[in-house]
Amino acid sequence: MSDFVLVLNAGSSSLKYSLVDAVTGHEAASGTVQQIGEPSGVLNHSAPSGEQRSERPFVNHADALQAVMDAFTDHGPSLADVTLRAVGHRVVHGGARFSVPVLIDDALVEAVQSLVPLAPLHNPANLEGIATARALFPDLPQVAVFDTAFHQTLPPHAYTYAVPLSLREEHQIRRYGFHGTSYSFVAAEAARVLGRPLSDLNLIVLHLGNGASATAIERGRSVDTSMGISPLEGLVMGTRSGDVDPALHAHLHRQLGWSIDDVDRVLNRESGLRGLSGYNDFRDVDRWRQFGDEGPMLAFDVFCYRIRKYVGAYYAVLGTVDAVVFTAGVGENAASMRAAALSGLERLGIAVDGERNDQRSDEPWLISPEGSEVAVLVVQTNEEWEIARQAMAVVGSAG
Ligand code: ADP
Known about the structure:
6-stranded mixed sheet; 8-stranded mixed sheet; alpha/beta
């Protein structure tokens, strides 16, 4: 019988869940509860019996998770019929303390709590999800899988910001990086597709979803990544600016009288593709730029140029590169972006074959020309499966 893991990703007003076979990655059911704590909420449950949508208020995460359990009971698959081995929680910030997934106990909860200053929006929501699931499944092992863990291999010269010692030592100011579960999964997939051990490969992986980041992976270890102490740094994203001059904050404060919260909100929620074009969804940007709309054309160019800059930087970091890998919603689907982002890099051995790039597949595929020095791949990420696998690894070794 298969080992199933219930994967939970608790946001401030949402709860995503997925019932995953940790061995095959098969998703038996999945869904989301949205607008938790608001006057009207919605639960979408997707199972072999079909898609169920129900609307009602969910007062808190406990109420939402109970509704999810009811959805399993009412619409299947019945949790009583599967071997549920663990609950796997996505936890955004593990600070410098967590480089591997961890079995959840009171001490772990306290440790995640102590990291709230580093992730004031995300970690409290993740803790809410953990408390709720522990109450509902007191006998089931629960595992925290940290988004930052994969990047704990960064060397000091890559993770250190050039700021005073007191900030670095007393306030843990440094680069942490995110999207770690995705990088872990995608790097292993790339090695599988290339038919070589990951420990032999140097990869530049581009995770381009609503959030976007780039990572240099040397022989399986993250050695640099574009997101920093928070997910704001680096590439242009759906609504986040990515890199700006850090003096921009002071400038906006002095010139426009903006508070630090105003700056934070604008750079995180009103910038990126949205700020440049009015659209945060890459499909809209791509559609309207083809009609010659200026905002979307500029958004596309800035997005692709920033990626190219990071590819060049990480090429220099790695010295030799075996593959460039595109993943996540935009990376897996936007062929025009892939071609534009890697254009002009032939001297580095990086090229995209037009016909291969325009193909679509549910399996990873190669988009570089035959015989290219550097393979360019599209790989479908699967963070839920990775969390399930990591949770089972912890539970297996604990048992
Ligand atoms: P998240 O970061 O929330 O996990 P995803 O990895 O699912 O997000 O990526 C979501 C984004 O992917 C969407 O906002 C959209 O911009 C982009 N996307 C999805 N499908 C396509 C497509 N066919 N073409 C271009 N972009 C797409």
